[in-house]
Amino acid sequence: MHEDVLANVEIQKVIDERDPFKLTQDMEPEFGMMLQYLQELNSKKKPDYKMLRSQFDVIKERKNLKFNLEWVGNSKGEASVKASGPQNDNFGKQSV
Question: Structure pTM?
Fold first, then answer.
């Protein structure tokens, strides 16, 4: 019985460590929301790229970023975001 309790504690620790808002607590709040969405996404369903891009746009506007965000795909069908254009010193800094 004691081993079951310890196992449950370990499982809860793993769940807590995956909490999207804890993982992104030092980032813009939209990153926590996007990570939560992606963690809950069914593996057979395509991500809502329009919604994800709109969240990046919110961050971009708030931080007054001047570069463009582009979706970049690879041969495996995986997507990522790439910044292009003039660099901006506000990128990565937390707004106050």
Answer: 0.59
